[in-house]
Prior knowledge:
Shape: elongated
GO molecular function: DNA binding; DNA-binding transcription factor activity
CATH class of the largest domain: Mainly Alpha
Pfam family, one: FCD
Keywords: Coiled coil, DNA-binding, Transcription, Transcription regulation
Number of helices: 11
Strand content: under 5%
Number of strands: 2
Protein name: Transcriptional regulator, GntR family
Largest sheet: 2 strands, antiparallel
Distance between the termini: 88 Å
CATH topology of the largest domain: Four Helix Bundle (Hemerythrin (Met), subunit A)
Amino acid sequence: MIENIQDRRQLADVVAERIERLIVDGVLKVGQALPSERRLCEKLGISRSALREGLRVLRGRGIIETAQGRGSHVARLSGEQDASPLMHLFNSQPRTLYDLLEVRALLEGESARLAALRGTDADFVLLRRRYEEMLAAHSEEGGDPREHARLDHAFHLAVSEASHNPVLVHTLQSLTDLMLSTVFASVNNLYHRPMQKRQIDRQHSRLFHAITERLPDQAQRAARDHIHSIRDNLKEIEQEEQRLVRATMRLEGWA
């Protein structure tokens, strides 16, 4: 009897580790509902009882959550980011935008290089899909900037997933909220300016083609140039606004 209990525990750990691997590899994403028990059993080649034991282990580790009537889904692994004092400070300080752009240039430059080296045909099909969705949204007049930002971010996330470095992917995903703030800043401030919009579209095109043509150095350079260009354009807009404020104050007799 004791041996049977030990065998069940070992099997549950094996099942849990296989599902954890799917999460680490990005096959199952944060917030995503797990497939049905029948489908999981078929895919993993295990019995339903073994699956349930494995899911129980994962719930105990806080890796999956189960809600009545909604089934199980992958938990938010990095904790309550929105409630984090650090995240609040980052979001409340405008200067952090430029710090985050520096981090994006480093991480996304490397993920683009690795994507060009390691990306599979399936990765490139998904990357092309995200790229074309982003282009379609950008070509619309008067579209929702937040939707543009979401699709822009989805394209960059597809690049990181093609790198096949789970730590890199999850590091970028853990910064999703902050990343979206930088993407939204660029979309909101740059896409209504025809010259900057054309520049960003050209940069995305360079990045996409360098990766899918398997040119790692060009892909890394394209990713970094894209982020550095956004940084420089946002700084220029900021300086323009400051000049306008100073001129208006002088006009109104403040100086």
